Amino acid sequence: MDCSFPEGDPAAVCGKRQQFGSRFLSDPARVFHHNAWDNVEWSEEQAAEAERKVQENSTQRVCQEKQADYEINANKYWNNFYKIHENGFFKDRHWLFTEFPELAPSQNHLKNLLSENKRSEVYEYYRSGEDGPGLTIEEQLSCSSVSLGDKTQPPLTEESVTQKLHHLEICANEFPGSSATYRILEVGCGVGNTVFPILQTNNDPSLFVYCCDFSSTAVELVQTNSAYDPSRCFAFVHDLCDEDKSYPMPENSLDVIILIFVLSAIVPDKMQNAINKLSRLLKPGGIMLLRDYGRYDMAQLRFKKGQCLSENFYVRGDGTRVYFFTQDELDTLFTTAGLEKVQNLVDRRLQVNRGKQLTMYRVWIQCKYRKPLGSSTS
């Protein structure tokens, strides 16, 4: 694995990620002095015990008849989940802006590209005519700045004309957020614990946020929230696994796609097609952000025999399902979809219940994968 990381304030340690990682447990006797400890290293014995527990709870599989029910009626199980919990189950994810500055104000995505030693690459991309010859970044981001008839521009090739016309088509077509210049999509939005912090924090008038969920109950809770503004946000019901159902925005139109604890909820065999389809929605240079369950997370170790659907894939008591990833598995999903790795890290955290004197070892994976500049979906 690349390295470990937790949630918290910046603290760079031997090349590990800087956003999280400010409290380290050097003295085991002090474990109950705080609620959480960062960058927790597992001993060989602890790793072996975790593997043993997973092998044990995987020996008895859910019967095929029940597995078919969980797949066919997945929307029913998620609707029931949100009817029971409504908006009281999850907390707003304000940590997202630390971990994912692409979601913060002022077109942070382009700024991050420039800060990652890609200044010349971005400049050449926008200068070369691949998405409009001779235009500045700011002009490229504005539909009104595109011109096909500037005599000072380099000669147009058939490819550049086709791509420019596609850019104009995106601007001209009427779809929710068509006039925006920075577009974010959250897949699996739940009741809006990511979307609403973004809208409340980022007042940029050029921003538009899309959010979708498999559960119609969850989407209804988003739409009826007092913070929901249809002029800045569009919430809709969507099945991530439905290959025939299109998204309400065209391909090559999104700057950011967010996947927070959602990919793990679908059948592993359908994950690749889902990521492929999402990748086509990204603009060249657009980025996909993911945070999800890692292999041997406490939740995986707590499953009992008879809850395992397939290897590392389980069903909860309420009928919802969850998969536990490795870094390599996620890397394969994203790179197969044509994306380039920016970040793929493991967050190992020790959470503590000081009242009950309990320790809980959590394992999450966080990824950022970018669509290469100059690439687009035909």
TrEMBL record:
EC number of the protein: 2.1.1.-
Enzyme class per UniProt: transferase
GO cellular component: cytoplasm
Main localization, broad class: cytoplasm
Entry keyword Transferase: yes
CDD domains listed in its UniProt record: AdoMet_MTases
GO terms of biological process kind: methylation; tRNA processing
Subcellular location: Cytoplasm
Catalytic reactions of this protein: cytidine(32) in tRNA(Arg)(CCU) + S-adenosyl-L-methionine = N(3)-methylcytidine(32) in tRNA(Arg)(CCU) + S-adenosyl-L-homocysteine + H(+); cytidine(32) in tRNA(Thr) + S-adenosyl-L-methionine = N(3)-methylcytidine(32) in tRNA(Thr) + S-adenosyl-L-homocysteine + H(+)
Start and end residues of each Methyltransferase type domain: 185-287
A Pfam short name: Methyltransf_12
Transmembrane segment boundaries: none
InterPro entries: Methyltransf_12, METTL2/6/8-like, SAM-dependent_MTases_sf
Keywords noted in UniProt: Cytoplasm, Methyltransferase, S-adenosyl-L-methionine, Transferase, tRNA processing
A GO molecular function held by the record: tRNA (cytidine-3-)-methyltransferase activity
Signal peptide, first to last residue: none
Presence of keyword ATP-binding: no
Gene3D superfamilies for this protein: Vaccinia Virus protein VP39 (3.40.50.150)
Job description of the protein: S-adenosyl-L-methionine-dependent methyltransferase.
Record family assignment: Belongs to the methyltransferase superfamily. METL family.
Name of the protein: tRNA N(3)-cytidine methyltransferase
Species, as recorded: Bos mutus (wild yak)
Organismal lineage: Eukaryota, Metazoa, Chordata, Craniata, Vertebrata
